[in-house]
Design goal:
about 270 residues; alpha/beta; Rossmann fold; seven-stranded parallel beta sheet; 10 helices; globular; binds NADP nicotinamide-adenine-dinucleotide phosphate
């Protein structure tokens, strides 16, 4: 009896829904930028739980080490390195590492963003704009440009950009950041037709207010949250996993006919351009 159960386990493919979704990215290599905390880390977890080998990175080695340790403890295949997404040589190092150590690239999640400026947009300086556009927009494109030839070698791939609800409705005091997030909506649509010819899908996720360090000034303030909640159908901030799972969905076979799209994950906050 036991022997036949073991034989069955060895030979039968997984059939339960949980197993199927968990194994749907098996054999894929996924680069996620800014992935040692918050939404990036949650995306790495969701991709890893579905079987992908994830390449995590951020600026600080100590954060990379911590994230690698955490993901390993969750039985996720993981490789880590430092990478400041705004720096060309770091981006090249990241791509090279994925290719040399993991055998190629199938998925790129461009998640890094900075916001060095709060205030009236008319008071923002050229240096602020340069920094925000370099990290939030140009790096997303330049990393895609580096990753695409490797995806083509694997027969295709998937790119996901992380935008924001602020890309649809600029947030007061976050003007330049909001504009950079609108640019990612355009980048998604500009790249999709060209990369579709190489069997590479390009999509985007626009989170609402998500409980991470980046947005803590928003969700930790009762007054600010009260205002946001008026716009939400689900009256709470989102969890990073609620974004990570949508990212993983967009990278999976279940989304094989979706490209050039942005999925808003905002608890119902209105998103219109
Ligand atoms: P977070 O929790 O504060 O995490 C930020 C991560 O990015 C950390 O791992 C940090 O590690 C890394 N990082 C920061 N600057 C970097 C750089 N230049 N290059 C590479 N890594 C960098 O932030 P988050 O809320 O998850 O934000 C992630 C993305 O979601 C951003 O694109 C943000 O605009 C977007 N988003 C967030 C919200 C929200 O409510 N949280 C809403 C909409 C959109 P190191 O310090 O080690 O670099």
């Amino acid at each position: 009896m036991l022997r036949s159960v073991f034989r069955c386990l060895r030979t039968k493919p997984f059939s339960g829904h949980r197993s199927m979704s968990q194994s749907s990215l098996a054999g894929k290599v996924a680069i996620v930028t800014a992935s040692t905390d918050g939404i990036g880390l949650a995306a790495a977890q969701s991709l890893g739980q579905r079987g992908a080998h994830v390449v995590v990175s951020s600026r600080r080695q100590a954060n990379v080490d911590k994230a690698v340790e955490l993901l390993k403890s969750q039985s996720i295949q993981v490789t880590g390195t430092t990478c400041n997404a705004g720096m060309g040589e770091d981006r090249e190092k990241l791509i090279q590492m994925a290719v040399e150590q993991c055998g190629g690239i199938d998925i790129l999640v461009s998640n890094a963003a900075v916001n060095p400026f709060f205030g009236n947009i008319m008071e923002s300086t050229e240096a602020v704009w340069d920094k925000i556009l370099d990290v939030n927009v140009k790096s997303a494109f330049l990393l895609t440009k580096l990753a695409v030839p490797h995806m083509i070698k694997r027969g295709g791939g998937s790119v996901v950009f992380v935008s924001s609800v602020a890309g649809y409705q600029p947030m007061q005091a976050l003007g330049p950041y909001s504009v950079s997030k609108t640019a990612l909506l355009g980048l998604t649509r500009a790249l999709a037709p060209e990369l579709g010819q190489s069997n590479i899908r390009v999509n985007c996720v626009a989170p609402g207010i998500i409980k991470t360090r980046f947005s803590s000034a928003l969700w930790q303030s009762e007054d600010i949250m009260e205002e946001f909640q008026k716009q939400m159908s689900i009256k709470r901030p989102g969890e990073p996993k609620e974004i990570g799972d949508v990212v993983a969905f967009l990278c999976s076979e279940e989304a094989s006919y979706i490209t050039g799209e942005t999925i808003t994950v905002t608890g119902g906050m209105g998103c219109r351009l």
